[in-house]
Amino acid sequence: MPTPIIEVQNLAKNYGAVEALRGISFSVQEGEVFGLLGPNGAGKTTTIEILEGLRRPDSGLVSVCGLVPDESGNAFKQLIGAVLQSTSLPDKIRVREAVELFSSFYERRRSVDDLMKRFGLVEKSNAYYSEISGGQKQRLALAMALVNEPRVIFLDEPTAGLDPQVRREIYDIIEELKREKKTILVTTHYIEEAERLCDRVAIVDNGRLIASGTPRELKHNSADTTRIEVRLARPDDVEVLKGLESVADCRAFDGYYVVHSSRAPRTIVALVKHLEATGNELVGMEIATPSLEDVFIELTGRRLRD
Amino acid sequence: MKNTIALTINRMQLAMRNRLFLVFSLIMPLIFFFLFLGLFARTSRAALLPAFGQVIGLTVMGNFWGLSVQLVTFREQGILRRFRLAPIGATSMLISSIIANYILTLPTLIIEFILAIAVFHMHSFGNLFGVFILATLGVISFASLGLIIASVTNTMQETQIINQIIWLGFLFLSGATLPLAMLPNFIQTTALFLPATYLVNGLQRTLAQSIGLSALFPAVLSLIGTTLIAFTVSVKLFRWDQSEKATRTAKIWAVSAIIPFLLLGAYEAWHGQLKNDARSVYSYMDRESPQRESPR
User: Is the pLDDT of residue A241 over 70?
Assistant: First the structure.
C-alpha cells in the first residue's frame, strides 16, 4: 500500500479544560476524498485546522505530504489549498483581485481566467466582496483554494449555511475535483454530503473517532438491518417496541420511532398486531436501508444535528 | 519581496476605496492646515513655518492611528486567518502596510506644500531635504508604534481606547497643537519622553531655522531605534487569529519599543536642550513680522 498523503496518529488538543480531540488517528491516500463526519463541537474543525497548520496539536503525530504542517512554513503552504469554515476577505476587494492576489503568493499557479470561468465568477469580476452572495463567496473561496494546483485540498464545512441549490452547485464542483483525482479532506455534518462525495468517512464525536470506512461499509456494518420509520397516532413505549420480533434497536424521536430490524416483514407484522392489541394506529411508515445518520445514531445514541 | 509588493498594492487599493481613510488621511490634515496656518498668518508671517511644521507633524503622526485599527479589524473579521493559509509571513503583512501608508501619505504632504505656496505665499521651506527625511522616518516610526498597539490589544474597543489615550498625549503634550514653550514646565518635561515631541520640534526647526539633520541626531536615532524595536516586536507578537490572545509577556515586550525615547527623554531632562529649542521656535513664532499681511 502506498504511503498515505495524510497521516494522523493519536492527535490530541485541549482548549483549557475542554478536550477537543482525544487521540484521533486516520490516514488518507493520494487521490482520495476523505470525510470527517460529526455534529458541531465533535472536533472536526480542530482536526482540519491542525492539518492546515493553523493550530498546534498538544500531542500526536501529523504528516501532510510528508511534512509536519505547523513546522514546515511556506514549503507546506505551497502544497495545500483550503476553504475555512468561514472565509472572510476585505469588503472592498474585488472578486478578480482576490484571486489574482492569492495566486501571486504561490510558485505554482493556475490561470486566473480559467478559475474565474470554472467557478462562474467572470460576471462578478469587478464586484466588491461585500456585494456578492453567500454562494458566490463560497465559490470564490474554492477558487482561491485552487490557485496553486494544491496536492491536498481541505474543505471545512464547505456547504454549511448555504441554500440547497447552492449546496448542489458546490457538490458538483467537489465531484469534478474528485474526478480529477484530487486528494480532498472534507468536514461536514450533512449526511448526504458525506455519502455523495466521500470515498471514505470517519465518524467523529466528542473528540474521538468512533468509526471509519467507506459509506457502504459503515452502513453494512450497521447491524445489517433495515430501517423502519413509523409514525403512530399515540405515543408508545420504546421498550415494548424493542421487544417486537426481529427488532435490533428502536429509538424515539420527535413524533416518530426509528426501528432497526433484521427481518423487516416479520417486524412489520408484529408491529401491526401490537398496535391492534393496544388500540393504537399506524399513521405512516417508511422503510429504507440504514443511512450514515443511522450509523451515527447507533454509535452515539444521538442524531447528528442534536 | 514579490509578496510584499502584491500586498502593498492591495492595501493601497483598499485604502483608496475607503471613504473614512480619505477623511482621516486627507480632509482632517487639510482642516488642521487651514486652521493652524490661517490662525498664525493673522499674527505673524514668521509663525507660518513653525506652524507648518506642526501641520506636517500631525499629518505624519496620523499613521499611528490607521494601521492599528486596520490590523485589529482584519484580525477580528477573520481576514488574517485566510492570509495565514497562504505562503506569506507576518513580516510581509506588516512591511506592506507601512509602505502603503507611506505612499498614501505623500500626496497629502505634497498638497499641503502646494497650498502653503498658493494660499499662504510661503516660498522658502528651510532644509527641505531634512523635512523629507523626518517625515519619512515619522511615518514609518508612528506606523510601527500603531502596529505595537495592534499586537497587544485583543479587541477593537481596547485598541480604540489605548489609541485615543496615546493620541491625545501626542496631540496636546508634544507641541503639535500648542507650542511646547507655552505649556507648563512639568508638561514640557513629560513631553521629553514622547516621540511626537521630537518629530514636531525637528520639523519646525528644519523648516523655520534650516537646521541640518546632524543637529537632530539624537532624535533621528531614537526614531530609527523605535521603528526597529517596534517593528521587530510587532512581527514577533503578530497574531493571525482572534482566538489567540495577547499574553502579559507580549505586553512587556511591547513596552520595549519606547526604550529609545525613555533614554532620550532622560538625557534631555538632564541636559535641557530640547526645551531651549522649543523656546527658540516659540520666540521665532512670536516675532513681529516686518510686513504683517493677511493671507490672500
Answer: yes
Q: Write down the pLDDT at residue B295.
A: 41
Taking an 8 Å cut-off on Cβ atoms, the answer to whether B85 and A78 are in contact is no
C-alpha to C-alpha distance for B257 and B260, rounded to whole angstroms: 7
Query: How many Å apart are CA A212 and CA A35, to the nearest integer?
Result: 9
Q: Which three cell numbers stand for residue A224?
A: 445489517
Inter-chain contact B79–A89, Cβ cutoff 8 Å?
A: yes
* CATH, domain range A6-217: 3.40.50.300
pLDDT at A224: 67
Nearest to A230 by CA among A205, A250, A201: A250
CATH top-level class of A223-289: alpha beta
Distances (CA, A) of A205 to A295, A299, B106: 12, 9, 56
What's the ipTM? 0.81
Q: Using the beta-carbon criterion (under 8 Å), do B86 and A106 form an inter-chain contact?
A: yes
Count of beta carbons in the 10 Å neighbourhood of residue B283: 11
b/e per residue A244-267 (b: at least 16 CB within 10 A): bbbbbbbbeeeeebbbbbeebeeb
For residue A201, what are the β-bridge partners?
A35, A213
Contact of A108 with chain B, judged by CB distance below 8 Å, is answered with no
Measured distance between the N- and C-terminal CA atoms of chain A, rounded to whole angstroms: 38
- Distance of residue A199 Cα from the nearest chain B Cα, in angstroms: 26
With H, G, I as helix, E, B as strand and everything else as coil, classify residue A167: helix
- The answer to whether the CB of B25 falls within 8 A of the CB of B62 is yes
Q: Which of B2, B20, B85 best probes binding to A when mutated, by most A CB atoms within 10 angstroms?
A: B85
Give CA–CA dist A250/A223, Å, rounded. Answer: 13
CATH 3.40.50.300 residue ranges for chain A: 6-217
pTM beyond 0.90: no
- pLDDT tens-digit readout, B194-210: 888 888 888 888 988 88
| Residue A105 contacts B, CB cutoff 8 Å | yes
- CATH 3.30.70.100 boundaries in chain A: 223-289
Contact A74 B3 (CB under 8 A): no
Answer whether B173's CB lies under 8 Å from B197's CB.
yes
Size of interface A-B (CB pairs under 8 A): 59
A92·B241 Cβ contact <8 A = no
The x, y and z cell numbers of residue B125, run together, are 521651506
pLDDT digits (tens, 9 = 90+) for A131-166: 998 888 988 999 999 999 999 999 998 888 778 888
> Rounded to whole angstroms, how far apart are CA atoms A106 and A282?
62
